[in-house]
Structures are given as structure tokens and as C-alpha cells.
Amino acid sequence: MKNKKPDILAIIPARSGSKGIKNKNIKKIKNKSLIQYAVDTAISSKLFSNIILTSDSKKYKEEIIHYKNNVDFILRENRLASDKSNTLDTWRDSIRKSEKKYNKIFNYSFLLEPTNPMRNAGDLKKLYNIIKNSKYDGVLTLSPTPETFTKEKTLVIKNKQISYYVVHGAKYSIRQNIPKQFHRNGIGYVAKRDYIFNCKNNFLNGKIGFLIIDRININIDNINDFNITKILIENDKKFN
Question: Where, residue-wise, is CATH 3.90.550.10 in the chain?
Fold first, then answer.
């Protein structure tokens, strides 16, 4: 008898109160909102038992109407939608409400932030394969940080005086001396159910694996990020 396929939940978190770009998650590129990019990738991966959009705004529900039964909407409480809210609290809330709604326990759940529309189904499959075939509690995607943007190259201005952010920053003037650094890119997170409920407020508390995405991608935070992403997608044949 074949083993039962594990139940996997895709959570797309989209609060309405973005400060950098108003209603960022429903801004459109090529007639498709950032939310819809996340949903389309989740569906095309064929990994998920259920896909939910969680938001504090009922208006955002309109973004998933045409998906019919493929995606459901879960209203998020205001306390989970402020600038100071912890994403892990939203993750836990989404699992609880989804398990009640679908009457099932989700072995794994993914968090797919709409702010990086340049993810693809292959990224999600790789994340799942890593956690399925390892002892990791969770796995996240990373991108290499260009040397120009590392902490060793960062400057601060204090009392109108420029200085290095790190002590002895001057010794890193040669970029080859800078240690490899990485940043979270928002393409995806996956975790085992128990870990999300036990890791408190730090995803990195446990045994965490990673998938390095070494291609151009942008986690949209401001209007410049959005405009660059728009140009990249409009000129990429994969999105045509």
C-alpha cells in the first residue's frame, strides 16, 4: 500500500498596512497582483493540499475570487497585522484556523510572501525535498549579499561625521577580504508543524536548512524595488 501523501499548507500572508508602498500586495505587474503571483506559483508546484491567503483586509479576498476552490481566504485579526506583529504569530494563527477549517493536521507548511514575485515552482519543490529528506526543523531561501551591501562596506553618519558601521571596517577595502554573507529573500520558508508552535519568535531557533537562490530576484520593500521588479518581469520570457 502506498504511503499517504503528507498534508502541506501554503500560507500567503498579505496585510494591508504596508508603509513603504500603499497596498503593496495588490499592486500589479503585467495585469497580475503580487498576491496572484504567489498563488499561481503555489498552484503550479502541485505540492499543496490547501492554499490560503491570510489578510486583515476583506478587500484582498477579491484577488483570489477567480481561483474558485483552489485558494481560500482567512481573515487575520488586527493584532497580527501591525508593523510590530511577528510573522511567526501569523503563521501559527494560519495553521490553527486552517486545521479547523479543513479538519486535518498539516505536517508541513510553507510561508510565501507576495513581496517576491520572482519565485518559481522549482524553488518550492527544492525546499520541500530538503526538509523531507533531512532532520531540519525548517528551511528558508537565501540570496548572496553583494559585497557592496555587506556590513563591512556600510557607512554610518553620526554628528555629521562618516564612519564605518563595523570596527576596523577600513581593512575590508579589498572586497576579497569580506566573508561571504547572505540575506533572506522572501521566496519561501517551510517548516514542520511542531517547530512553528515551539520556536517562539525566532525562526532560526532550531535546526534550519537553507536553499541558496543565486539568480536575480528582489524582495519588494519600496517603490524602487517594485519598479525594478516590474522591468525584470516585463522583459523575462518566463513571465510572458
Answer: 8-138+184-239
CATH 3.90.550.10 assigned to 8-138+184-239: yes
pTM of the predicted model as reported, rounded to 2 decimal places: 0.91
pLDDT tens profile 63-99 = 999 998 899 999 988 888 777 788 999 999 999 999 9
DSSP label at residue 6: P
Per-residue model confidence (pLDDT) at position 232: 94
Tell me how far apart the alpha carbons of residues 140 and 161 are, in angstroms, rounded to a whole number: 38
What gap in Å lies between CA 36 and CA 89, rounded to an integer? 23
Distance CA 92, CA 129 (A): 22
Find the helix or strand (DSSP H, E) in which 29 lies. Answer: strand 28-29
Using DSSP, state whether 154 is helix, strand or coil.
Answer: coil
Which among 205, 183, 220, 169 has a CA at the least distance from the CA of 14? 220
